[in-house]
Design a protein that fits this description.
Blueprint (H helix, E strand, L loop, with lengths): L14 E4 L3 E5 L4 E6 L6 H12 L7 E5 L2 E5 L6 H7 L4 H16 L18 E3 L8 E4 L2 E4 L6 E3 L1 H13 L6 H18 L1 H17 L5 H11 L2
Antiparallel strand pairs: 1-2, 2-3, 3-5, 4-5, 6-9, 7-8
Helix pairs in contact: 3-5, 4-5, 4-6, 5-6, 6-7
Length: 228
């Protein structure tokens, strides 16, 4: 049995993954350390992950969290994006899974302490606001959603629109990959509800445009979508 009481030390284990905001290290005991690269208080993220886990939503089990560190259960499996790259025939199925994960999350009534970001539509659903194929791990027991930094409460369709804004601004080089992105987006919108997404899409694009983690190339794509 894995001992989930372990907390982080000053010397993290081997690097498993590195994103724009945080690195993930293997702790060697069935847990991983998610360590933010800059000053960041993980209290909100930990609280959200524990709350949605209690509600039955598929997230890693949180062991501990303080400062810029979260120790959580290690989930083995490729990201949804990696799995699409290896098994392209799964693209439509994964797009539907992404929509199902959103619908499942949006059925949860947000607790009173869950914040609504300024400038976003009113609503009482739990929102992820960063739910895209790199933040879904594919396991034998089903998909698991990671990276709850931006979680909030609000209007469900805005969360879905954020997913579209994120995917459509991916930096992609080849024509083949652009066709794959188009197919993923159309399949996702059809599964979630195209009209619901389109009603919030420009608001989501502008929020993505204002995100400090967005690259200049991604901003350029978003501006073109907005007609700026």
């Amino acid at each position: 049995m894995v001992d989930y009481r372990r907390t982080v030390t000053s010397a993290p284990g081997p690097l498993l993954a590195s994103g724009r905001a945080a690195d993930v290290h293997d702790q060697g005991d069935g847990t991983v350390l998610r360590r933010y690269k800059h000053d960041h208080d993980v209290e909100h993220e930990v609280a959200v992950m524990r709350w949605v886990a209690e509600a039955g939503y598929p997230v890693p089990r949180v062991v501990s969290g303080s400062g810029r560190d979260i120790v959580m259960e290690r989930i083995d499996g490729p990201t949804m994006l990696d799995d699409i790259g290896r098994r392209r025939w799964m693209l439509v199925a994964h797009a539907r899974t992404l929509a199902q994960l959103h619908h499942q999350l949006h059925r949860l009534m947000a607790p009173d302490w869950l914040r609504r970001p300024d400038g976003t539509p009113e609503g009482r659903a739990v929102l992820h606001l960063d739910l895209h194929p790199l933040n879904v791990l594919i396991t034998p027991d089903g998909p698991v959603v990671i990276d709850w930094t931006n979680a909030a409460r609000g209007e469900p369709s805005f969360d879905a629109a954020m997913t579209v804004a994120l995917i459509e601004s991916y930096e992609i080089d080849s024509r083949f990959e652009r066709m794959g992105r188009w197919a993923l987006l159309r399949s996702y919108e059809l599964a979630y509800g195209r009209r619901a997404v389109s009603d919030q899409l420009d608001t989501a694009r502008r929020r993505r445009l204002a995100d400090a983690n967005t690259t200049e190339a991604e901003r350029s794509l978003l501006r073109r979508r907005l007609g700026d």
